[in-house]
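Protocol step 4 of 6: structure prediction from sequence.
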Amino acid sequence: MNSKLWLGVTLALGVVVVTWAADAPKGKPVADPSVQELRAELTALRSEFLVLQERTKRLETTVEELKRAPSPVPLNVPGQKSFLFTPDTGGSQQPAIWGERQVNGWTYYIVPCGQNPAAAEVKLR
């Protein structure tokens, strides 16, 4: 009886191994062209992602450096003398317009840069 038991176990094991071998994939599957296209697209997207990630890191470090840097002083601060030319308008009065002209349908005005009474006497044609 012992030999029949071993024979039965061996046959059962053989059937299991044959069934398992039949279900196992056979070799490499045939490459589908659409799968190859998707893999190429995935590779391109990964490389683009890495480039954008690196760019983001560089921009973040630049922003942090700019936050730590002292801000420049504005050029024209009220109450401070500017090194740029600012005409003296004599307070809040606007300078008088010396003349209005037209060239090719465009209107332009002649305005003095300062309040010099002698220059106001000059008439332009």
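Step 5 (inspection) to follow. Residues 31-70 form one domain.
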